[in-house]
## 1
Amino acid sequence: MKLYDSGRSPNPRRVRIFLAEKGLSVPLVPVDLGKLEQRDGAYLAVNPRGRTPALELDDGEVITESLAICRYFEELHPEPPLFGTGPLGRARVETWQRRIELELLFPVMHVFRHTHPHMAALENPQVPAWAEANRPRVFDFLAFLDGHLRTRDFVADSFSVADITGPYTIDLMKPARLAVPEELAEVRRWHHLIAERPSAKA
C-alpha cells in the first residue's frame, strides 16, 4: 500500500491528518505539483484525472478522492470514529463535512486558484471575477459557523473528519489572501484548538 501525496495541498493533507488521528502510517510517494508531475504519464497511469491524493493498494487497486480514502481507512480501523457514531452521529458529521467542503473549501479554492500567480499553470484561464464572486461566500459561511461553535468545541458530537476539513481550509485562506475576521472569535478558537492537536503537523 502506498499513498501518492503532494505536500501542503489541501486534499492530501486531509488524508495525512486523518491517518495521524488514527495512528496509522502509510508509505508516501511524493508528487510535485510545481513541476506538474501530476500530469506526467507515470502518474496518470495511477490516476487518469491527474489529481492527488491516490491510494494504491497491495493488489494494484487505486482509490482516489481524499474523502473516499478516509472512509476506506475508517472501515478498516473504526477506532477512534472520525465519521460519527450511530445513525444520528454519522448524519451530523456528514452534514458538517458537506457544508464545510461546499460552502468554505470550494469558495476558498476558487479565490486561490483564480488569483494566485503560481496557480496560473493549473487554472487556465484564471478568471479573477470568479474569485471575487466567491469572496463574500467565504465570510458568509464563516459567520454562520461562528454561531454554531458558540456552544461546542467541535462541529459535531466529537472530533471528526469535518474538524479536519475546516481548519486546513482556514490555513489555505492565507495564500488566498483571505483572513478570518477578528469578530469571529469562535472560529478562531476552534482553529487554534485543532491546530494544537499533534495530527495538525502531519
## 2
Amino acid sequence: MLSRLVNRFFKNTLYIKIRSDLLSVNLVEKNRTIEDKPLVALTSGRKGKRIIVAVGSEAEIAQSKGGNSVTIHNGFDHPRSCVRDFEIAQSTLQYFITRVVDRKAFLRPIIILHPLERIEGGLTQIEYRGLRDLAVSAGAREAYIWTGRVLDLQELIKLDFPQSGGKLGWG
C-alpha cells in the first residue's frame, strides 16, 4: 500500500533512448525530454585523472576553446555494440539525468534504457547486463532494457511492456 502511494506521487521514470549520435532522456511523469549528443569533453588533472569539462554539444565548444588539452569522447559510439566506454557512458547518463530530474526528488528513478542501433540479432546477456549495470551505476533504483519499437507514454507510465514488438531484458 505504502509503496503504491510513493510510486503514484513520487515516481520518476526515465525513458532513455540511446543512439551513437543522440541521447534522449524523457522524464515520463512530466513528459519532459532533453536530447543532445552523447559527448563528454575531458582534460587531464593531477596525476592523470580525467576531469569532465563539458557534456553534450557543449563538449565540442569546449574542445575548440581548449585546444589539444581537451579531448572528446563518446561512450556510445562503437561499430558492434551500443556501449563503447562504460565510465564515459555512465558520466554522460548521470549528467543527462540531472538535467531532466528535479533536484528535490528524493527517490532514485526507474530507468528504461532503449538502445536504438547496433542490436542486430538481439542483445547478448553480457550486453543486457552491461546496460543494466550502466543504468544502476547512473542512479537507477530499477532498470529495464527494452529493444524493439519505441514505447508510448501510457506504456511507460504503467511500465506495461508489450508482448509483441520488442523484447524486455533485465541483465
